[in-house]
Amino acid sequence: MPSMAPGGRINSQTNNKKRKAYSDGDNRSELLARKHKFEQQRKSLPIASVEKKLVDEIRSNSTLIIVGETGSGKTTQLPQFLLSAGFCNAGKVIGITQPRRVAAVTVAKRVAEECGVELGSTVGYSIRFDDMTSNSTSLKYMTDGLLLREALLDPYLSRYSVIIVDEAHERTVHTDVLLGLLKRIQKERGKLINEHNNGMRTMTNETSVGTLKKYQRLSPLKLIIMSASLDARVFSDYFGGARALYVQGRQFPVDIFYTLHPETDYVDAALITIFQIHLEEESGDILVFLTGQEEIESVERLVKERLQQLAEDKRKLKVLPIYSSLPSEKQMQVFMPALDGYRKVVLATNIAETSVTIPGIKYVIDPGVVKQRQYTASTGIESLVVVPISKAQALQRSGRAGREGPGKCFRLYPEREFQKLDDSTKPEIKRSNLSNVILQLKALGVDDILGFDFIEKPKSEAVSKSLALLSLLGALTDENKLSDPIGHQMARLPLEPIYSKALILASQFNCLEEMLIAVAMLSVESIFYTPREKKEEARAAAKCFSSPEGDHLALLNVFRAAVEVLQKNFGNNREKAEKNLRKWCKDNFINNRSLKHALDVHRQIVGHVEQMGLSITSCGEDMIQFRRCLAAAFFLQAALKQPDGTYRSLSSGLVVQIHPSSGLFKGKPECLIYNELLKTNNNYIRNVTRIDYLWLPELAPQYYALK
Ligand code: CDP
Ligand code: MG
After folding, report:
1. CATH architecture observed for domain 4-8+251-429
2. Is the pLDDT of residue 533 over 90?
3. Protein residues with C-beta less than 5 angstroms from the ion ligand 2
4. Domain ranges of the chain
5. CA 311 to CA 319: how far, in whole Å?
């Protein structure tokens, strides 16, 4: 059991009225009551008292940095202030970008409710694979990556009067690139408007009339950069000394507890702490930070299991997960209050750090870790690794406990470990594979990547490695320009370059139908699940789908079986079909949420490839054809068996092992390709398929013929 020692305290400030959460009524008086409640809640947010000042500042500055504590109302309120102030007149749109899908969706829903409009009308959101906007949308919440894609179609982002880059402190690759792009667009728009104004006076020839007409409706672009980190200087400097405003937050004291010794199993420690709080502490909801969907789902199951062992009156604990690929109808549940007498325990990834604020939280459990992308330029290996958080993150996490009253934060590590943490997190651009971003920048006409005005330049080694990868995939010409048609096609698909290429190749290998399924299934986390108490049954179920040839084929089998189940009952009764699918998933130990997500992704990428004019044909029973295509697409992730049964990656030389969850764990083929590298104590590979070694020089001569 983790023994807790009290530690520091974070500062306190003034009082706060207890926020009331909303309920789900639909009759008229309830609607009115709800509207009234929203109005009161809005008024009580710290940002409400500075509305006029903020709007004035935005009117008089073309770029503004706004720093404010999490939960002060930046994301939900500021866009509404601007809407009322007329920034959306003449059909203009205010775009608000978020690094995370969940934030874009849940915030848009909340704001639509506050405005009393239907989602997708005045207020909407747009994220990859899910667009909830219409012609009448004025406030558009979206992911930063999506706005980058929009720039491909509309280089001046001309529909937007204001773009708010939210959560800029997260410094995702997309945010960083977007900042550079927006800075450029703002300048260019200014230039065009000047030319237009001058031209109106001195208009001479026909062509200028055309150009002028085109940009007649262009207005200056207002940029607002919002951040939860107090350090606004980097952003201010980057935008030529732009003005920074600070919005005062509200924070109650939070008692911080540390463990006396490091925990060997933080998941177990988190579980124990959840029940300690539940059984011993006064009422108030719990927020637990975990590293990903899989971990969250396993903790969810374990909490439910252990609850059953408690006396009936002690079981009033409601477990609610939130992570990025959770179906959106489930995401909103964490914001609702638990039933009377119940305590909520929210299991979240680091999206709950600053992106979304969950009402009711009084206790935070912080294991001190986060799953992060890491990239080693020298080997070209990108992997997801669980690493210690930074001090800034630890502070944000504990702060979540003191939003509505005094709270407690349980750090599942000793205080001396906290002292060793880095002050802040390294920007993602410094630690990820850049091929996707480079592809997009090239498609936007930025050919000199290192010459691009980044807020922080990526390492030149990482840039050249990513350029080399794109060349190997055939996306670039010898002059490092986008190749036609492959490079352009790849840039159009909203996927990692290697997956885009796989789809393009598959249309040549006559197995696009199969590859679309594989890519959709590979883009979600863990299709299978193995509960601890039913290991044998789960394994037996997985066997029904598995194939000695590889996991990609097993994924095909699962997907096709699921589609059959859905279609069987479909008729007009969608609800019944979904219920049926849920049951089928449960019986077969398939993760229903992941599967639904995959079905969704599949539908969308099918749309994309159809638009591109690729023909969707199937290789039928000829799985060799499909495996050859996998080899041609993922040739950089091929590995060869070594005498001791481990594998050596052919491109990086890294020694890896097949993950026990793979269907090939026992079969151990001579040569394989894999899609996922998991770095724990061992380097595990997952989603593995057997290939013939000789296919590599044949299908990827650009790489293997030389070796
Ligand atoms: O962006 P910032 O962190 O400054 O705050 P916000 O996201 O605008 O949140 C303002 C308030 O709205 C918080 O008290 C949230 O708890 C609440 N909120 C909510 O209850 N439900 C949502 N779906 C989103 C926000
Ligand atoms: Mg926010």
Report:
1. 3-Layer(aba) Sandwich (3.40)
2. no
3. 74-75
4. 4-8+251-429, 45-247, 634-707
5. 17
